[in-house]
Write a structure and sequence with these properties.
single chain, mainly alpha, 72% helix, disordered N terminus
Length: 327
């Protein structure tokens, strides 16, 4: 099913750069969890990949003029939700059958309804909070499209609000971060080149200052400095990487490996985490870390492929049923 969601204004170089950036973010997240399983503190630096994903999503939709919101929401929801709920159900069943992890019926319901972010998480599936967050971000997209004409003012307000909450109120901004990064990416894509440089400099300056003053003790704790580092660091990295790829080396084509990883990035994100952390982890099957990592990566690739094919079959079946009952 093809859903026309508006006129895309991304250049070829920008489109290719987004693919590279998405793959970099994916590698960062997987590497973060691998290092986390090995109790390596550098894991907590690499997890800016999640912020990069939010920025990419906002940046992409900021280049589109969406006319039919009903079709847009249906397409986005099913593309994100179906792989997510299949992954959650399969792993919850595996936890129930093969491990001693406590799994309640309420946990299953929380994942089916994508409300696990607010409670009902299962150990090993904590990374799926991203799905609920991105679905909620999509809800604010119509408002962002209306605000594109005043993108500069709204970006300025968003940055001020985030700094105010983090530095003065010192409030836990776990809920605020996805909306800030997604909205900033969306509005940033609609700024003029001069204003983009202005905001890129401001974001970069905050990221550098925080990086110079933060200690390992604060990086390892989910506090104010940690939130600042990952939120502004993720945005600064995204902007810098896009600028480098589009203006410095002017990428025009993706190698095959980048195309494949980009294509399966969402599925890899969904299935990798339980194989690395939690009671289904394969990181300690043998006494050799390298061998364990290779096994984890191979199984992740296979599961991601199967998940993609299963979702394609579901989409094809849904299309056939729609045609049958619409005759």
């Amino acid at each position: 099913m093809v859903c026309v969601i508006g006129q895309h204004r991304l250049s070829l170089s920008e489109s290719v750069a987004i693919s590279y950036l998405r793959v970099i973010a994916l590698i960062s997240i997987v590497a973060c969890h691998l290092l986390q399983a090995m109790d390596n503190k550098w894991a907590w630096v690499l997890n800016i990949g999640v912020q990069v994903f939010f920025f990419i999503s906002g940046f992409l939709y900021g280049h589109k003029d969406i006319q039919d919101w009903v079709h847009w929401y249906k397409y986005r929801f099913w593309k994100i939700y179906i792989p997510f709920v299949i992954t959650a159900i399969v792993f919850i069943i595996c936890y129930k059958v093969f491990t001693t992890t406590e799994v309640k019926f309420s946990n299953l319901i929380s994942y089916i309804t994508a409300t696990q972010w607010f409670g009902g998480r299962v150990k090993g599936l904590g990374h799926l909070w991203f799905v609920t967050a991105i679905l909620l971000c999509y809800l604010c997209t119509p408002i962002l499209q209306v605000l594109r004409g005043v993108a500069y003012k709204v970006c300025f307000l968003l940055v001020l609000c985030s700094l105010y909450e983090l530095l003065l109120v010192r409030y836990d901004v776990t809920l605020f971060m996805p909306f800030f990064v997604y909205s900033f990416g969306y509005l940033y894509s609609n700024l003029s080149k001069k204003k983009k440089w202005l905001f890129a400099s401001a974001i970069g300056a905050v990221a550098v200052v925080v990086s110079c003053h933060i200690t390992w003790e604060k990086v390892l704790v989910d506090g104010v400095e940690n939130q600042l580092l990952h939120t502004f660091g993720g945005i600064a990295f995204s902007i810098s990487a896009l600028a480098f790829l589009t203006r410095v080396i002017e990428v025009k084509k993706c190698p095959r490996i980048i195309e494949v990883l980009d294509k399966y990035s969402y599925e890899v994100y969904l299935v990798h985490h339980p194989l690395i952390l939690g009671t289904l982890s394969m990181m300690f099957v043998t006494k050799y870390y390298v061998l364990n990592i290779i096994m984890v990566l191979l199984i992740t690739i296979v599961l991601a492929y199967w998940l993609k094919q299963l979702c394609r079959y579901y989409g094809h079946l849904q299309l056939q049923l729609t045609k049958k009952f619409c005759r």
